[in-house]
Amino acid sequence: MSENSVFGRLFDVISARKKESPDNSYVARLMFKGTEKINSKIMEEAAEVTEAALDNDRSHLVYEICDLLFHTFVLAGSKDISLMDIEIELERRFGKSGLQEKAERKNNA
């Protein structure tokens, strides 16, 4: 994925916000409050995604998915996980069936 992609730009903004005051940035405020706060936002957004999926309102579902991705990316940024790290892991999994990937995880545990 290109650094100019919206995901790449979003990760850049999240990284920059990490250094800002929690008084001036929502991302900085979430990171300042810590992993538990970010996790609670992710769980809230995940619930909203599943609710929106039942509503047959495509635009609302897209909106909620974006909120979930955003907060997940904030968590990644707070843990120094880059978009490249995520892309590498997804690439590793690409072309494998989910059943195969899951079996490999069990065997390596």
In brief:
By secondary structure, the protein is mainly α. The chain has helices at 6-17, 26-33, 35-53, 58-78, 83-93, 98-108.
Main sheet specs: none
Remind me, CATH topology? Answer: Helix Hairpins
Helix tally?
A: 6
Mean of residue pLDDT values? 92
- Derived from helix and strand composition plus strand pairing, the structural class reads mainly alpha
Total domains: 1
H and E string? HHHHHH
How far do the termini sit from each other? 30 Å
Strand content: under 5%
- The level-1 CATH class: Mainly Alpha
What value does the Rg take, in angstroms?
16 Å
Question: What best-fitting shape do the alpha-carbon axes yield?
Answer: globular
The CATH architecture term is Orthogonal Bundle
Q: CATH-wise, what's the superfamily?
A: MazG-like
- Could you tell me the number of beta strands? 0
Could you describe the 3D structure shown?
This protein has 109 residues and is mainly alpha-helical. The chain has helices at residues 6-17, 26-33, 35-53, 58-78, 83-93, 98-108. The two termini are 30 Å apart. The model has no long low-confidence stretch (mean pLDDT 92).
